[in-house]
Amino acid sequence: MKKYNLGIDIGGTSIKIGLFDLEGNLLQTDSIRTNKTSKGSFILPELADYIKHKFTIEDIRGIGIGVPGPVAKNMIYSCVNLGWGEKDIVKEFKELLAIDDIIVRVANDANLAAAGEIYKGVASGYINAFMVTLGTGIGGGVIIDGRVVDGINGVAGEIGHTHIDDLFNLDCNCGKSGCLETVASATGIVRLAKEYLRKSNKPSKLRRYPEFSAKKVIDFAKAGDDLATEIIDKSMEYLARVLAKVTYIINPDIFIIGGGISNAGNFIIEKIKKYYYPLVVPFISHTNFEIATLGNEAGMFGACYLVKW
């Protein structure tokens, strides 16, 4: 009789593996190194070997896998951080495990973080959610009627590459310029701050530092530094403008804010809401905004959620 599901989050440095019972309770976690040599050709074989030696494979009902790249209908299109191009991970992984009666599904890691939050996190009880991860870049995850939405090319929810800014028009890693990621991610806030410092004569404690982090900008804004406050307000205004557009497309029950910037907590939430509501009223009178709660375990919970049916 099947007893467990595995939720696996493949990252560029490590692979997190969660063992769950069939009710979605996390029983144990493990981690192995992500071996990216030879264009990531060892990642799946080493993961399969670890699972076969660590667990009784006959007890495993399903394995959900999150990867850092676009996925559609269980097909990976590209994972540059892992060295992968197009890849049928389900077929390959089932062959490596050498067992037929096991469910294997794969999705983008940001989408699975969103799924994790509605499964066992801050959005538990909701069925329509949009998650934004504000880290080095900006990721997004879409859940509609309780299901992960990939899109035809696996880029559903990737709002970080929405063109939003014509004022600073900073270059993005995607090859475009003016993307949301260039002004509202952790690196984007720093770049925006440097633009403000260059163009403005306003005094600011930021001028004491040749280099600084997004956290430093947020901390100074919290402390009342006028220029730092102006920078964070502008950054969150850009984000709010994109979330307003998302609202008119999918009208989610809740926006979940995750990633390193979310550590600023309610300070960031209130900044987003300040600019969001004037853009959606009178059509939308209330939308829930919450900080993600599962942290680094969100991807594992989401991967488990992927195979709960």
Give structural notes.
The structure is a single chain. With 309 residues, this protein is an alpha/beta fold. It folds into 2 domains: 4-117 and 297-306, Nucleotidyltransferase, domain 5 (2-Layer Sandwich); 125-292, ATPase, nucleotide binding domain (Nucleotidyltransferase, domain 5, 2-Layer Sandwich). The protein has helices at residues 37-40, 43-54, 89-97, 109-120, 181-184, 186-199, 214-222, 226-250, 266-280, 298-306, and strands spanning 4-10, 14-21, 26-33, 60-67, 71-72, 75-76, 103-108, 129-134, 138-144, 147-148, 254-258, 288-291. A hairpin with a 3-residue loop joins β1 (4-10) and β2 (14-21).
Return the CATH architecture of the largest domain. Answer: 2-Layer Sandwich
N- and C-termini, Cα separation: 16 Å
Q: CATH homologous superfamily name of the largest domain?
A: ATPase, nucleotide binding domain
What number is the mean pLDDT? 94
How big is the Rg? 20 Å
Pattern of helices and strands: EEEHHEEEHEHEEEHHHHEHEH
Number of domains: 2
How are the strands of the largest sheet arranged? Answer: 3-2-1-4-7
Secondary structure tally: strands: 12
SSE-based structural type: alpha/beta
**Low-pLDDT sequence parts:** none
CATH fold naming of the largest domain:
Nucleotidyltransferase, domain 5
Quote the beta fraction.
15-25%
CATH C-level of the largest domain? Alpha Beta
Main sheet properties: 5 strands, mixed
Which bin fits the share of residues in helices? 25-40%
Report the principal-axis shape.
globular
